[in-house]
Amino acid sequence: MNFKFLYSFGFVTLINLYSAQAAERLVVSYGVLQRSVPVSAVKTFIKAGEITPELRPYATLLNSLELKNLRTSLQGGVKVGVVPVSNFLGSPLGQQLLNQIGQIIRVSPESSGEKAVSSALVLATSQPDGLNLVNFLEAFPTQQIWVDGLLLRGAVDQVEQLVSEARKVGTVDPNAPLEALLPPDIKGIKDPQVKGPYKVQTLTLNNRERPMVSAVWLSSAKGKRPVLILSHGLGEDRSSYAYLAEHWASFGFHVIAPNHPGSDQKRLQALLEGRYTDVVAATEFIERPKDITRLINRLDQLNKSDPRFRNRLNLGAIGVFGHSFGGYTALALAGAPLDPPALQKVCTQTPEKSLMVNLAFFFQCQAQQLGNAPIALRDKRIKAVIASSAVSGSAFGTGLNQIALPTLMVTSTDDRVTPSVPEQAQPFTTLAKPKYLLTFVGGSHFSVGANRPANPNLPNLGAGDITAQNALQAVGLAFWATYLGVEPRYKGYLVPSYG
């Protein structure tokens, strides 16, 4: 047996020993004040919606709608395998998460609940209906669960503050009717929301330098046409943004979307199967931008020799779109150096940053081990970038001001993975012009992702929003057409009134 299996087996054995006694009371402390309720009363409320006498004093603080919403949120859960959960909790990122949760959920007023939370999470995950609050409470290995109400309230307040601040800069409401996105009439150019006039041919492309398969959408437009490269997020693949590729190719752009081997869906699948303990290797912060540079080099060769591509690719007019980790990739290629020394400073000296508030911050901290000097990953052949829900709040230090290319940042106010304010809105202020910020009010990290058939082997992390997708198609097209030399009149769509 290999080490990973032994580690996971040992973890499950440990939690089964712990689970001999389940939690009986939930104790919430607010400084010197304490309130205690039976765990059975909480479970009854979640399962049946019944307010027992022990909960009645607290229920009177909420109206009926608030109680209904509270119960709905507490009923939520996720199905994922025991092995990947135990492996993740044993990883550096998982240990940081447990450390913070253990300060809030404790086994006694004086003792962290880190180990108890860990065991309860894994045991709850093993239940037929997956990880949810009821299963977590039933799996907790001590008779009392102590909750530090002040710390919990502080974490919740931070999340609410981030969302509130993000909504102040919102410009596009994904619940608004589609007609609300239309600008004043711009004569002589095609509406960027409707399908373009060109046919699209699809094919695949292999890159031998680092095993990588790319999807290609070739436009039927004549002559040399600009090239767009799409960089997917962590756990996605080359098909994740096919709807964008098809739309933009129909307007005369050639679009290529590579699989990033170390951070694609196969990597996520391997993580869930227990073949990796780290979500991603730190070196992917370097390899991902290099993937794009290697791909452009390959396209340069094909543009000279392959009849499918010959003299059709304008490699002097390349744009890069990226989402999440792909947004980081786009910004690095645009000229922002990865800055391990800056990460070393903020990741060790800012303990007030909460992992539960900004998971992306700790994700970026993995790159602090990559050296003692900034790492330049710019590719000068790239002329414009779109960074959607980008991981960008810390990885570049102050280096985003070195980007001298037209940049469109896309953000969602209710993004809990890469929060809008620290990861996009604040970094946006350091960019040079021309720059644009497209904000989806009420949108999530997954709003612009395509809805695809569910994969039973992967967790469902969120659904795409058709209005957000349509808006990104249209605004993105206007941005590319303006700054890659296709049609400058599309700049008329890059105005606040379009939202």
Describe the overall structure.
By secondary structure, this protein is an alpha/beta fold. The chain is 39% helix and 17% strand. The chain has helices at 3-18, 39-48, 56-59, 64-75, 82-90, 92-104, 114-125, 133-139, 149-168, 242-249, 265-272, 284-305, 325-334, 340-349, 359-365, 420-428, 466-483; strands at 25-30, 33-38, 77-78, 105-108, 111-112, 131-132, 144-148, 200-207, 212-219, 225-231, 254-258, 313-323, 382-388, 407-412, 435-440. Strands 8-9-11-10-12-13-14-15 form an eight-stranded mixed sheet, with helices on both faces. A five-stranded mixed sheet has the order 2-1-7-4-5. Strands 3-6 form a two-stranded antiparallel ribbon. Strand 1 (25-30) and strand 2 form a beta hairpin. Helix 1 (3-18) packs across helix 7 (114-125), helix 5 (82-90) crosses helix 6 and helix 5 packs antiparallel against helix 7 (114-125). It starts with a helix and ends in a 16-residue tail after the last helix.
Main traits of this protein?
five-stranded mixed sheet, 499 residues, elongated, disordered N terminus, alpha/beta
Q: Helix count, per DSSP? A: 17
Total strands = 15
In what order do the strands lie side by side in the largest sheet? 8-9-11-10-12-13-14-15
Biggest sheet architecture: 8 strands, mixed
Q: Could you tell me the mean pLDDT? A: 81
- The end-to-end distance, rounded to whole angstroms, is 57 Å
Shape: elongated
Helical amount: 25-40%
Low-confidence runs: 1-20, 168-184
